[in-house]
Amino acid sequence: MPDLTLEFSNLEVQRGDRLLFSRLSGAVSSHELLFVKGENGSGKSTLLRCLAGLYAPDEGTVCWQGQELGRLGEEYRRNLLYLGHLNGIKANLTALENLRFLCTVEGSVHGNRDIQNALHKMGLAGFEDVPARMLSQGQKRRIALSRLMLSTAALWVLDEPFTALDVHAVEMLQSVISAHLENGGIVVITTHQETPLTTDSSRTLWLGRQP
Amino acid sequence: MNLNWFTYSAPINFYPLAGRMITPFALLAVLLIGIGLYWGFFQTPDILSEQKQYYRIIFPHVAAAWMSMWLYIVMVGWALLGLVFNTRLSFMMAAATAPTGALFTFIALVTGAVWGKTSWGTWWDWDPRLTSELILLFLYAGYMALQSAIEDTRRSDRASAILAIVGLVCVPVIFWSINCPDPNQCASLHQQSSLEHVESNILIAMLLTALGFWMYSFAVIFMRVRRIILERERQTSWVAELPEVGGGL
Amino acid sequence: MIRVFYAVLLRDVTLAMRYRTDVLTALFFFLIVVSLFPLAIGAEKATLRLIAPGVIWVAALLASLLALERLFADDYADGSLEQMLLIPQPLVIIVLAKISAHWLLTGLPLTLIAPLIGLQYHLLPNEQWTMMLALVLGTPVLSLIGAIGAALTLGLRGGGVLVALLILPLYIPVLVYGAGAVAKAMAGVADISAYFELLGAFLILALVLSPWATAAALKVSSE
Fold it and tell me: Taking a contact as any Cβ pair under 8 Å apart, which residues of chain B between 47 and 106 contact chain A?
């Protein structure tokens, strides 16, 4: 896989009265994991949204493969998988239906078999045909995370993906992320979790004051 | 003098500039409106009927109606600039323009109703032009309501900008449909604004008053935008140091 | 792109069918509102025929407005909207699909129920057809324009009333010509094609312009 890079330079965001961050720059490439850390309210989620292209920063640019996000448009979104605080799962659809819809609109080639495998791996065997509203928070989260196994996106931007997960699911997620990095993918992540994800190729970005 | 417009797009530079411009515009406003009112009420011919004397109120009515429409366009212009160039000040100017535009719409409606009473004997007749002014008031009200309903300034600016632009696109269609509810008989489109038929003194009064209203608008909008700047930029050091904010201590 | 359009359309319709209350509520609202007028004004046949075009159209506007909240609010709340903004497809296609689903679930049922109201208001068969044609052309425009309002007011307090204030002025042209067409038909005017031409023109204009405005509004509201 060619070497892929996500670069951001001189980012500044002001939300309401507060200056969240300014002159923030950095880059992350294939096989690399970027931890974004900081206290609550330090702008971690906003930064991730800037990187995902959901929030236009007041100053600065985000570039994928050297080109600004605004110019890339669809092409960037094809290479991106973003999971925020909200799951993006419809309560009145089953797990299978949710993932089938998401796969279709992302243009992926996965059939029902692949989707079911992904759900099984995330510990949701037997729950594929249950409306999501009947599942627990953790189970709904796992449906959303199943997308990681079905995605062909190179860049994963994950905002607190470990929330509401039990130990088993946490391990599962960690191995999925490690596998993705090994294959040349890029991961940008925020988490409160103490995780053995820290490898040689992981870096940390601190927002706000470092403790 | 090499005027770099983009310098003035920063609130810190625009604030003093706006401040300097308020007094001259205010003076011009008083002057022009004063002359316009005098001309309109005293230099225009009398009409024998006692009631119809008040026909003269048509001239501030027309001037206010013009202003209400022009200011909407100005407001949309600022909103568009804000969206394209992402300048905070443009959005502030749009927000500052809206209340004055709404005010003139209201004046147009009230003076129009008075004129209607003298001409047709009723305060409100669903006359197409007055009805259009009423809809314009709703558009202004919607803009201001949306702005105040959204707490986050950035979202509020952009959302109301989109609303204003959509409003402008729809306004011709709305006005046309009110003026021309029966498409089979739409020859009456040109009945309006036949300025040639207006008595020349009234016309002069209209133009003078309109000009005065423009001066008033400039003055008031600059005052309002300064207040908006102070409010939005209150966390910055330059605002904290302003004498009117009690800084520099 | 077509595949994505149908996927979104199907999804929205499926979701609505599973939670049918929403769809039926708007319809019942429509029926209740039109039933109020004879109670308030009197059930004299001539009066009812006179006010029928206006009443039916205003009720349709209000029912449409009520149903708008359903368009994006749910997706906004559970994060699906955010994900739709990140799909590698033009947002306008997705928006168009959602609005189409909304119309199928709101405007179309209204149009199909309208003859019942026509009976209540003593409309003749040919007048009923005129009314249905006007509604079938006009209600999509209501959904299209309303979508802009719904997108702008996502997640805001007092959303429903605010959307009404923003959108009702923009509904006026459809109201004027939609009701006008029916009124003229009831007055025996033979050639009312001009009304339908105008309504058709509005539909085309709204189809072209509204998805862009709605998409822009969605991006602003989702930040």
Answer: 86
